[in-house]
Amino acid sequence: MKRYRVIGKSVLKKESWDKVSGRVKYIDDHQEVGTLHVKLLTSTYAHAYIGNVDTTEAWKVPGVRAIVTGKDYPLLIGTTIKDRPLLAFDKVRYYGEPIAMVIADTEAIAIQAVTLICVEYKPLRVVNSPVEAYQKDAPLVHDQIEQYLIDQDADTTGTSGGIRPVPGTNIANRQGIRKGNIERGFARSDVIVEEVFSFKQSDHTAIETRCADVEIKKTGEVIIHSASQEPFEMRELISQTFNIDEGKVHVHIPLVGGSFGAKTSVQLEPLAYVASKAVGGRKVRLRNSREEDIVTSPVHIGLHAKVKMGCTRDGKLQAIKLFFLFDGGAYAERAVPVTKAAAFDCTGPYTIDHVWCDSLCMYTNHPYATDFRGFGRTEVAFGVERTIDIMANKLGMCPLEFRLKNAIQPGDTSPTKVLLNKSNLGDIRECLLQLRELIDWDRGQRIDISDRIVRTKGISCTWKNGDPPPGVGAGAILTFNSDGGININCAAIEIGQGTKTVLTQMVAEKMKMDVDDVFIQMEVNTQLSPEHWETAASRTTFLSGNAVLRAVEDAIRQLKRTAAIILKVPVDELEVANKKVYKKTSPSISIDFSEIVYGYIFPDGKVAGTQVVGRGTYMIPGITEMDPVTGRGIQGPEWGVVAQAVEVEFDKRDNTFKLIRAVSVADAGTILNYKGAETQVMGAMNMGLSFATREGFLYDDQGKVLTTQFRSYKVMHYGEQPEYIVRFIENPVKGAPFGSRGLGEHGIMGMPAAVANSLSLAANVSLQQLPLTPEFIWKTRLKAGEVY
Amino acid sequence: MIEKLTLDINGEQWVATVRMADTLLDVLREKLDLTGAKRGCENGDCGSCTVLADGLPVKSCMMLAVDAIGKKLTTIEGLQDTPMQHAFVEKWAFQCGYCTSGFIMNAHALVNQHPDATDEIMEEWLSSNICRCTSYQEIREAVKSVLKEQRFDRKRPRNRR
Amino acid sequence: MLHFNFDYYRPSSIDEAVELFDKLDQDGKKPIYLSGGTEITTLGRLNQVFTKAVIDVKGIPECNVLDYKQDSVVVVGAALTLTQVWESKILPLLGEACVRIGDRTSRNQITLGGNLASEIIYREAVLPLLLSNSTFVVAGIEGIRQLSVHKIFKEKLRLKRGEFLVQIKVDGKYRKMPFYIEKKRKSERVDYPLITLEALKVDRSIRLAISGLCAFPFRSYEMEKELNNTDISIEERIDRAILRIPAPVISDIRGSREYRIFVLRNTLLDALIYLGGVRA
Ligand SMILES: Cc1cc2nc3c(=O)[nH]c(=O)nc-3n(C[C@H](O)[C@H](O)[C@H](O)COP(=O)(O)OP(=O)(O)OC[C@H]3O[C@@H](n4cnc5c(N)ncnc54)[C@H](O)[C@@H]3O)c2cc1C
Ligand code: FES
Ligand code: FES
């Protein structure tokens, strides 16, 4: 493999010291005197008509500057189906939905006034699960979906395109996969299993809650500061919704305090815009409380999945039929792309010739969903990978051997019928083989420690392509300092994933210079930075990286051109390193960057060259439309793969368990920053285990979410994590910066399935729901007659 | 009631005009621009607002500012180049950084109060904070490395210091 | 962030505190006593507590006492934090209950009195106080009363308007008696209890107090009686004790009624084995 100087090294995050000394200014840390505060009034019903919204008492609170209700702005917005009122008017569709807002001098005053607003509700029958939503006689969450507009960018392509709500139902979209012939596949199978899996919605709970500041200037310019991953989409949405020139909308994104997909959805900003407008354009801040962040803002999707799998007696998978009812919640938003992506990669990394999948995004009276780490794969893998274990068990095969036997290979095709090769597909077999060693697989999958305690291991394999819509890209600009150091300007957003640092490594590598001489701006400003598709889908490094590399090439070209004149050496005999341009054959003939980056002046006053500004742009090639029925098309550039294992210690009496060890072996292509990659994967694994064992909303029978605080919505705490082990296989991808693959999400995808496989073995029952709480395990065993 | 308070923060006297119902977190952030302590839940659950009061970690979202009068407060802004900060950087014990001030304050107090902290004590203390980005293993390594360093320093003969 | 404001008082004597309360109450300020302040700040922001005046009892010397030398009575001030109570090791029975509440940082703030007077249904710190037949010292405008825990803590702390808890007194003999405590949670290490069970062995019989099982913490003589019936098998004793649970078992987001009973059964078994030297 190629040796690099800076790439692959564990270069510390550029913003490290700011983060450990409390100096980083996240959005909520910028406080400007004179800013007004906005508080939302949110619905206490999940489905109800709203009558009069009485604001009389609220207006009486001194310091209240404005109150806006849904009736004032009867607008529908959305980035896929435009189905979501800015503030609910006539009807609320989920518990926690914004109905009105108060703009006041302080947050305390705004909260106080909000509590004084009275809303008349007329409760409606609630759609309390995706299965209920699918029933013929289900109440409709939206009466007339056929009348909704579909976002113009969304109506043709990619995961966010080709959206077709089904009138008269609660189906926001249906994405199919038809590969081979499913009947034939099952006919060829000796063994068929069919199982149902489910989990409720949950939440990202990034520790920084969502927050947006908006100010409207006299010139009509709209200045937005936000904790978001989507500055450009936000700009577009604001401009379209409120009919403002896009050039007049400026979005600033400081460092973001975690997201995991939560901050891809644009929600608070349009509200804050309206709030600012109501107070003459003054700067306003709308910040979620934890409760609002969990329930009012978009959440992690829920799923009810039917998995039918067919296999020959000797363990060759033949057919898979999948039916997904996703709990997209009350509004389509980004739930639709998630459910489409789930279909595209539905099989996991296995060779299966006959694939049938229908992935339905269902409207329910639950909070609406958006991206979550894994983007549909984490969810699907839970069902598919559990079924793989059930199948292997039925065949009497070792689940690892079974996976090896069916592992997808170059030459196979994806469910979307893309021909796979060594570059666009990671090496899942190699991942599995290394996993086997790391988890001591051959020492036994189940070991009895005592009468009560048993240790078990479970595994899973997952894969993921990035799913950018066609035509997405990024740009980068490099400028130089007088000492030859470089500044990178690009719109990738730092949410903790370390992208910014990796970009400086790329520049340093290409320029053969010290990474300490490369700087990158942490804030993103749409007015200054070249357009960048959202920071999501593990594609940021891919897009920005390619743009940055092209900018480096551009800068090198300019540097060499100037140096050639001064050194009197032809351009193609020149090379750059250590902030110098030099002659390849005699390096002593050289000139420092510092002398030429702003142009060079000869003693006689003549000049050579001009200021060097590197410019690079990139657009992902080769992505196509995806057929809504068959799923045929190219959804992204490459599939990263990962094999994972979880070892647990289970107490057969109490049905409690401890997480002992969790291992990931990922083919992530070339690793750009070793520690960065390792900790990304570890963090994602931890989130996956937390999700699988503890998280998930609980609703009452009226659809009210009961878990809106960390006091009730429990996430993993320190001390409960297992030992984490992460290894990489570096199988480079063509066309990606230094051959790297997406990475930020892979750690999470197989965790729920692996821990469920492990616990199913331990508890001697098949666990098909999340979260895997001791109570759920106990109940399942009780039903199965395992315990009394 | 609105009153002028004097608080002892990071060894300095700070004066602020506050409502009696303001929490210490409100005052630190909004009145004194000490924004290192974060609002993650304002409900005592996440620990991102942790500061030290007389050397002990407290969740500043659950403490009234008036209640902090007379206590020696330390915020992340008061830590300069401490071993814990170094360890967090070197062990990659943060990603987005939002929980980090609170985690560091807690961990810093822990190693001061319990130089011989066992895994059990570490768990007892550190489970007061939530981090959603890291796996906690990095944080564990960071704290352990400081404990180890301290132990090493203590063992070294004094005259060689 | 509390959206309402209040006046804050920090009296330095019991008399001052009760007089302040009386006066503020008459002025319509709906005063409340404040100790650790963790409940007022967190429930207040959710609009579940409201007041125009708080009276902080932390400045009252009697509320900060921690003493066990004289008379072999352990005295614990209501304003001590749970961490202080635990670290003092003054009464392990109590300390071990305190150290299971909330998380470590919160325990640096939550006080014993605050937990006992809490609106939140668990009030776990009362368990050892029920088991040890403790005495509560409360102060009101009419003076100081000393009452048995069984008189003043019925499901919750039953104070007269204007009264506050000053101290708890526990007979020193309880410092050395064998006890068993277990807090079972849904899955997190930091959470409210599914059940917290504390059992104390006095002479040869077992006392039992439980929080989280019903809508309030309790000590049950009926359950104790069944558990102490050594004529029958341990399983039978537990079965019978379960029939004597004094109030409906709760079903909530942390666990169903059936599951709580399942957990209770196992925990009782562990307690009996631990305290009784009984074989499983
Ligand atoms: C993060 C967190 C986790 C928690 N976990 C648990 C748990 O696991 N188990 C559990 O049992 N509880 C738990 N609690 C609840 C906690 O014990 C209560 O909120 C407790 O009341 C707070 O004590 P405090 O001293 O801060 O009370 P404060 O907020 O000062 O007061 C609480 C109440 O008690 C009254 N009060 C206070 N002192 C006195 C006094 N001396 N005399 C009379 N009345 C008084 C106040 O008027 C108020 O009504 C948790 C709380 C938090 C914040
Ligand atoms: S903000 Fe204080 S604990 Fe979360
Ligand atoms: S680093 Fe993001 S929450 Fe801890």
List keywords for this structure.
heterotrimer, A: 788 residues, alpha+beta, Aldehyde Oxidoreductase, domain 4, Aldehyde Oxidoreductase, domain 3, 3 domains, eight-stranded mixed β-sheet, five-stranded mixed β-sheet, 19 helices, globular, C: 280 residues, Uridine Diphospho-n-acetylenolpyruvylglucosamine Reductase, domain 2, Uridine Diphospho-n-acetylenolpyruvylglucosamine Reductase, domain 3, Enolase-like, domain 1, five-stranded antiparallel β-sheet, four-stranded antiparallel β-sheet, binds flavin-adenine dinucleotide, binds FE2/S2 (inorganic) cluster
Provide an overview of this structure.
The complex is a heterotrimer of chains A (788), B (161) and C (280). Chain A has 788 residues and is of the alpha+beta class. Chain A folds into 3 domains: 16-23 and 472-619, Aldehyde Oxidoreductase, domain 4, CATH 3.30.365; 32-126 and 204-295, Aldehyde Oxidoreductase, domain 3; 301-408 and 418-468 and 623-783, Aldehyde oxidase/xanthine dehydrogenase, molybdopterin binding domain (Aldehyde Oxidoreductase, domain 4, 2-Layer Sandwich), CATH 3.30.365. The longest helix of chain A has 28 residues, at 540-567. Chain A is globular and about 95 Å long. Chain A starts with 15 loop residues before the first helix and ends in a 5-residue tail after the last helix. The relative contact order of chain A is 0.13. The mean pLDDT of chain B is 95. By secondary structure, chain B is an alpha+beta fold. In chain B, α2 packs across α5. In chain B, strands 2-1-5-3-4 form a 5-stranded mixed sheet, with helices on both faces. In chain B, a hairpin with a 2-residue loop joins β1 (2-9) and β2. The radius of gyration of chain B is 16 Å and the shape is globular. Helix content of chain B is 35%, strand content 17%. Chain C has 280 residues and is an alpha+beta fold. Chain C has 3 domains: 7-59, Uridine Diphospho-n-acetylenolpyruvylglucosamine Reductase, domain 2, CATH 3.30.43.10; 61-172, 2-Layer Sandwich (Uridine Diphospho-n-acetylenolpyruvylglucosamine Reductase, domain 3); 179-274, CO dehydrogenase flavoprotein, C-terminal domain (Enolase-like, domain 1). Chain C has helices at 14-26, 38-45, 82-88, 92-98, 104-107, 112-116, 126-131, 149-152, 221-227, 234-243, 257-276, and strands at 7-9, 32-34, 53-56, 66-67, 73-77, 135-140, 143-148, 153-154, 156-157, 164-171, 179-184, 195-202, 205-211, 218-219. Chain C has a 5-stranded antiparallel sheet. Chain C has a 4-stranded antiparallel sheet with strand order 11-12-13-14, sandwiched between helices. A 3-stranded parallel sheet of chain C has the order 1-3-2, with helices on one face. In chain C, α3 (82-88) runs antiparallel to α4. The longest helix of chain C is centred in the C-terminal third of the chain and has 20 residues, at 257-276. The mean pLDDT of chain C is 96. Chains in contact: A-B, A-C, B-C. Chains A and B meet through α1 and α16 of A and α2, α3, α4 and α5 of B. Flavin-adenine dinucleotide sits between chains C (32-40, 42, 57, 78, 101-102, 106, 109-111, 113-115, 117-118, 120, 122-124, 159, 164-165, 192) and B (44-45, 62).
